[in-house]
């Protein structure tokens, strides 16, 4: 990844007219005080309102749709997008796939970012979960353990667990960031050899330990469970 | 931001044919073992090779360009992109602008993510900087302090400082992530009132304290300097 050429420069690969149309559409959304999900004018109305050509508006809309700033529902029109981390996920997953032979370096980096964030959020997660009852997350952990006993992996349950764990943390940007790196990880990890049955069981147990530590208000035990949670994966990366 | 509808679902707002063309172009890059910066075939050649219509290929290329997976240099052709965090930055900045009245919540969240990451990276930064000489970063801190004494802000120096500080940390994904949040922060912060002269001076001093703590191998002092570094901003957010 090359951040040197400008992390926040305007979008590359678009014509000057389309970039200008993009900025006009963004300004239009802001000045009209529209919010995510609100409908946008039709393409023809936008061309007229902004005084831009149809091809510029069309190109701008496609770029804004790729960035989740505009959402195009075919047959229903255009809407203000929900703004997500999906563009970053697509970029990072592709980067991971681009250099698989690079000693799994991309995957290692993603796993390290996840572990660092999980550890850094220990205090916030424990504060949010101390004494909290939520049978849904217990169900998810039960399912994980049952699948692990049969030697099966549990991607869906894993996603639900991490999402539920961060749901009561007030700063939801952390949750979005963690989910984005979870997705990059999950979409890149199939390059590795299949996990061993004992790794699957230990990973399931570590989830239960994270939840128990959070509920009992034990920040240090939570951090240890986070490290244990990534241990089987770290071992698989060492073997690969 | 709505991650519920699928953090890693395929790109919304594109037609089925264009999505299929996008996947074909990604597969072509992977199967040809191309790397960032390598040239891609022309649009006509891609249509022929992939057996897709010109309009689908053109729409796919625009979307991939918005995600920095393909780079279009007008008059020079198409190249494999460098894959960056710019798409996430554009999304988050727009999100920040979309709800400025929301008690600066977006900006607060971004600042908290930066502080959490800076604190979590204390050990890695100290390990990378202990005893390290690099006159360029001292120059940057000198410039910051000189500007601060005159009551001037120092965005360029701030960016250089944080980039240089993370440059020797082995996992460069952290550097990209930090620079992305730095950019979101910097592009969103003008919504706040101008900083007070003493805040500018204190922020400059905190940068010097971070560098000194890292060089002397003092992780705890580094963490304290990080907190002091965000203090003036935290106060400005409280006042706003």
From TrEMBL, chains A, B:
Keyword Cell membrane: no
Domain HTH gntR-type: 15-83
Pfam families named in the record: FCD, GntR
Keyword tags: DNA-binding, Transcription, Transcription regulation
Taxon lineage: Bacteria, Bacillati, Actinomycetota, Actinomycetes, Actinomycetales
Descriptive protein name: DNA-binding transcriptional regulator, FadR family
UniProt-listed SMART domains: FCD, HTH_GNTR
GO molecular function, one term: DNA binding
Keyword Nucleus: no
SUPFAM superfamilies from the UniProt entry: GntR ligand-binding domain-like, Winged helix' DNA-binding domain
Domain of life: Bacteria
InterPro entries for this protein: GntR_C (IPR011711), TF_FadR/GntR_C (IPR008920), Tscrpt_reg_HTH_GntR (IPR000524), WH-like_DNA-bd_sf (IPR036388), WH_DNA-bd_sf (IPR036390)
